[in-house]
What we know:
Elements: H1 2-39, E1 43-48, H2 54-64, E2 72-77, H3 101-107, H4 114-120, E3 124-131, E4 143-155, E5 158-160, E6 168-171, E7 174-177, E8 184-195, H5 196-203, E9 215-220, H6 229-235, H7 240-253, H8 259-283, H9 297-316, H10 327-341, H11 346-355, E10 357-359, E11 372-374, H12 393-406, H13 408-411, E12 414-420, H14 433-448, E13 452-456
Parallel strand pairs: 1-12, 1-13, 2-3, 2-9, 3-8, 9-12
Antiparallel strand pairs: 4-5, 4-8, 6-7, 10-11
Helix pairs in contact: 7-10, 8-9, 8-11, 9-10, 12-14
Amino acid sequence: MRRQYLRLRFSAKYLRLVKWTILVILVVTLICMVTQWQSSGKMKVIVLEEHQLALKYWYQAVSRGTLPSHGNTLIHIDAHSDAALPEYLPQFPFFRAPKKDYEIDVMMQRNDVFVEGAVIAGLFDRVIWIWPSWDTGTHDEDHDISQEEVGWTVHGGQKVTPESRQCDYAVNNTDLPLDPSSCNVLRDYSLEVVRDKAVLQLMKDEDWIEPDETIILDIDEDFYGVESAAAVLINAGIPLHVIERLDRQISRLLCPRNTWEENLADLYIFNILEAITARCMHHAHKNTPCKNTDGEITVFAYNFAKKKMDNQLKLHGEMFCFDMTHQTNLNEQLQSVITSLLELTHSQLGVLAETGFCLVSTSVLSEGYVPFQICHGLNFPNSSKITFHLPTRAEVIGRSFQLGEILPAFLANAKVVTIARSIRDGYTPRRYFRTIETDILNSLYASLKSSFSLLYSGDLLGGVKGWSQRHKH
């Protein structure tokens, strides 16, 4: 018995040694990766999800010494300017460079204010926004240059950030008129708004981009087109009130805290939809709600989902909204989700499964609870000021060729490149996502001859392969 005990103790000690050896290897590997990221002389190209996350990587380049903290030029290739006024918050780096990570977090308020936030912090003194030709309806000129001024005033005892040239100031995300004399101007910068087709002509002017300009090249994949992911659901005949009800019900059942749990939660509902669709297809016309297929489908769907949930509670219980002591509440929420799903036809369930389920925003951008719901993004038809444009495949090919022509003009001076997918917030056309991103990267490879380091952000929706490939191994 004693000898057996010694062997067991030796085995446990050996296993602990192996575990710590693996841990040390992983830590050393991570340190090497970080060191390579910090010290590599190659230019960094970062693929990220929500566009405001670009600020994080721009200021990483500043901290590495790759980029000055002020006076840079932003080349912003995007369907949107992203230059609305940010809300002034106490931790916002007010007309100075951010010193702490939490100050950068405050700058990442929304996807439409981060450019102006970077201007206020002094990162840019020149912004060139290149917009796509499919959006000519919202622009008066192919090339417009203005000198913008940004300052502050006091409203209700609090500082706000007005833009004196337009005589506006931002309060509660609303631009209001302001007498320019009331603005304490602290920043001015050059803003150029350029149509994509006008860039080639401007490139012929050797003085357009100065040799000593330091450039951040920033590309949003919605430059190719903007779709409403919610419109896909509505066009399939799913009523808006059912979409909104499912959003509420699912957000009370599943509460993933990160992208890993987000993928698990999406797969959980996807499996339920697959099971219901398979049974519904065999018993109902394509336009008949699944609840009318047979008297047992409600019981079948609930039991299937309940069994899956019980298994997931054992393995990944944290992704559900209540712990094990609230099993009854979970069962009730699950039943409500099943009831709503059975109101749909099997073809509508297929569209819902393809659209998927995700967190409303990246968890790193939010403090506390982030709703998990149908992954339809922010823009619903007829309730958004966004211009929608779904490109043809020929348009995608043509725009990629165009990018290949204009990117070399900026890459010679570029210090960092950021590429925003803009899938989570519902902008980039999902059917062309892989083609768009591959074409952008190929244009960079062709111009830089592979002399850059490619980094994929850890919070990408669906991972590196993207949302459409999330269930494929």
